[in-house]
Each structure stands twice: as structure tokens, then as C-alpha cells.
Design goal:
Shape: globular
Order of helices and strands: EHEHEHEHHHHEEEHEHEHHHHEE
Distance between the termini: 10 Å
Structural class: alpha/beta
Number of helices: 13
Strand content: 15-25%
Length: 388
């Protein structure tokens, strides 16, 4: 594959090993993740001149965290697109580097929803948001919105519970090799389909875990990346959007990935057939299925058949996905799992994934995500990464 020009490279990646942190503050988790990513890169915090975070950062976001970590930066940004924020922030950091606003960008995420008692199923009511009056009275919580979308896809295309269950089964086959994964037991189709209904048709095992922890990434100029003793992972394409209700003219079976994905592929100059590994945001099994369709790995309505029979299992199927176990089995820190998608893609490109799930000679990977509610409004981000 020919070498492509790039704005920036991911030089450091770190996933916090804890899944429950009752004894740590959110700010402390951010700082520990930052230290881990900088150590992975072989850089010192004095070399960081750009800082990026999202709505999980405490206080005034970057203002509070830059002081807490005693950083001296000349560029900062906070972007909130829900769970996909940190995929977008990789693009934003690369853009800032290309514009000359910084040379080394630090991106951190952390949260404690598990220690704080979040079930992941309760409706989130944010005072003052314009949609409250039209949705909250009807119970439009997160899981209900995803259940609504799953029902529509099953009605329109004949998707089955068993096909959705294959996504969880694949994730569990990968999670068994991850010592930090919350759910390490391999599950069967029957296990998933017989688990309790949460929001019909979604069962408990169709839903992601709720975990504390966090992660961090370091993005740097290509010349800096090449000077470090790490494999060079280049960002070669990206796209993002927000999909909303469009005043009622919305197709519930299509996500914003239908825009962010093709945008990323066009910038990178590659196609879905070129991708060797895919990190797909998996807040629920239906989230994965829809994004695979919208990315072009299969046609709209054929996602159920595409994921069936182990097609997403590394070493078995055609498209290995979420080889750390993903949000369905491993980790969904701060209810914003986008950063873990990038981290595992970096591991795959470096050849540092677990040997049982490592894709041989992986040189091209994709990370994509959604953040918000598929049944209402959500952000979508897609990036394409290449090992130099």
C-alpha cells in the first residue's frame, strides 16, 4: 500500500486498567491516563503544548484540567459529541497540529459512572435542553431510543435476535483474552437471547458494560513521531457529523456514520474492502450493526447476515472487530467509549494486541463511533489509521 501524506500521528495510547475506582477522583483518573499515554509515547509532559478533552472533564473542562496537571499549552479544545467525542478529538488535534497551533497534543478521558451508581438505563434529563418537553414525557431514555431503532430495523429488514446476538458473542470471544475486561466469559447465542429484556428487543447482554476508568492519547507531528521508538501510526482520513430528527424526516435505520464514514474513506483514499481491522462503537449490539451498514461493509438491511456466523471474530471472520472485547464486554469508561476504540486500533497497528486476536500484518484500521441517542440525535465520527 503506498505511503500517504498525513497531518499527524498517534504516538501514545493508554487505557486505565481499573473498571471500578471508588477511591479515585475523576481528575486523578484523567491525570493517571495522561501519565500512561505520555510514558507509552516516550514523551514528557513539558513537551505537551496542546490539550483536548470532552464533557467528562470536571470543572471548567480544559481550564480545570490544564491547571490540575500543571500543563503549559498554547492551544486547547473541548468538544462534546457524547461517546464519539474522543474519535473527533483525534481529528481536531491533527487539524490543530497541521495549522501550527501545537506540536504535541494530549487527549484525556475519565469517569466514575459505576462507582456513582449509574445503571446506564435511566433517562438523562439535562435542564434547559430544547428537546426535553417533547421527549422526556414519553420516556425517551438512552436504551429506549436504541430499542426503538432495533425494532425498526427488525421490522423493515427482517433482522433477528440471533443476528444481533452474534455481535455480543464475537465480543466475548475477544474479551476472554483481555485480563482487564469486565466480562471475560464467552457467551452463546442462547445466553444473549435468553438474558432479561431491557428495552424490547434489546436484552441485557445486548447492552454495554458500565465502567469507571479512562484513557488517553498523544497526537504529534509526523517528524516527532518518527523520532520516537514506537511504530508510526498515521491519521490518514476522518469525518464527523451530527444526525438529528430533521423535523421528522429521519430514517431510524441510518446513523450519522453514513456521512462521517464516506468522508473519512474519501480523505484516506481507501475503501471498506481495504480495512483489515475495525473498532466499531458498541454501546448496544444494534449500534454495531447499523454502523457496519453505513460504513459500506455491507448494504443497508444486510447487516444481520453480515455479522452472523462469527464474521466479526478475529481469526474466524472477514472483519475482526473490537478485539479488546469492546464496550459490550471490556470497558465503556465514563459512558464515552470512543477513546477505547482508537486505543485498540493503535494496538492492532503496532502489533501489540493479544496474540490470540492480533490481525496478522495489520497496516490499515478504522475507528468509528456514535454519541448520543440513535433514536433521537447523535454525533458520528470516523477515522482511518495506517501504520507507516
Amino acid at each position: 500500500m503506498p505511503s500517504r501524506p498525513t497531518k499527524a500521528c498517534i504516538v501514545g495510547a493508554f487505557e486505565h486498567p481499573t473498571r471500578k475506582a471508588p477511591d479515585k477522583s475523576v481528575a486523578q483518573l484523567h491525570a493517571e491516563c495522561a501519565a500512561g499515554a505520555l510514558a507509552d509515547a516516550g514523551l514528557d509532559k513539558s513537551q505537551v503544548d496542546g490539550y483536548f478533552c470532552s464533557g467528562d472533564a470536571p470543572g471548567m473542562g480544559p481550564t480545570s484540567m490544564i491547571e490540575y496537571m500543571n500543563l503549559k499549552v498554547r492551544h486547547t479544545e473541548s468538544t462534546d459529541l457524547g461517546g464519539t467525542s474522543y474519535i473527533s478529538l483525534v481529528m481536531h488535534a491533527a487539524d490543530a497540529i497541521a495549522a501550527g497551533r501545537c506540536n504535541v497534543a494530549l487527549i484525556t478521558l475519565a469517569g466514575r459512572p459505576r462507582s456513582e451508581g449509574s445503571s446506564g438505563t435511566a433517562a438523562r434529563v439535562r435542564p434547559g435542553v430544547p428537546e426535553n418537553a417533547w421527549e422526556m414525557p414519553y420516556g425517551m431514555g438512552t436504551v429506549n431510543g436504541y430499542g426503538l431503532v432495533a425494532q425498526r430495523h427488525m421490522h423493515e429488514f427482517g433482522t433477528t435476535l440471533e443476528q444481533l446476538a452474534w455481535i455480543k458473542v464475537a465480543a466475548s470471544h475477544h474479551a476472554q483474552h483481555n485480563p482487564h475486561a469486565m466480562l471475560r466469559d464467552v457467551v452463546t447465542l442462547e445466553d444473549v437471547m435468553n438474558s432479561p429484556v431491557i428495552s424490547d428487543p434489546l436484552r441485557r447482554l445486548d447492552c454495554c458494560v458500565v465502567s469507571d476508568g479512562g484513557g488517553a492519547l498523544v497526537v504529534a507531528r509526523p517528524e516527532i513521531a518518527r523520532s520516537l521508538k514506537r511504530p508510526v501510526v498515521k491519521l490518514i482520513g476522518g469525518g464527523e457529523t451530527v444526525r438529528h430528527g430533521w423535523a421528522g424526516a429521519v430514517d431510524l435505520t441510518t446513523t450519522g456514520t453514513a456521512i462521517s464514514g464516506p468522508t473519512a474513506f474519501a480523505e484516506a483514499g481507501v475503501t471498506p474492502a481495504d480495512i483489515q481491522y475495525a473498532s466499531i462503537y458498541d454501546s448496544f449490539t444494534i449500534t454495531v450493526l447499523l454502523q457496519l451498514e453505513d460504513l459500506g461493509f455491507c448494504k443497508k438491511g444486510e447487516g444481520g447476515r453480515f455479522v452472523a456466523d462469527g464474521n466479526l471474530i478475529s481469526g474466524v471472520g472477514k472483519l475482526p472487530f473490537n478485539t479488546d472485547g469492546g464496550g459490550l464486554c471490556n470497558n465503556h469508561p465514563a459512558n464515552r467509549g470512543g477513546i477505547t476504540k482508537v486505543i485498540e486500533a493503535v494496538r492492532q497497528l503496532r502489533g501489540e494486541a493479544h496474540p490470540k486476536v492480533q490481525v496478522p500484518n495489520c497496516t490499515l484500521a478504522l475507528a468509528t463511533g456514535t454519541g448520543g441517542n440513535l433514536g433521537a440525535r447523535h454525533g458520528s465520527s470516523t477515522i482511518i489509521l495506517e501504520r507507516e
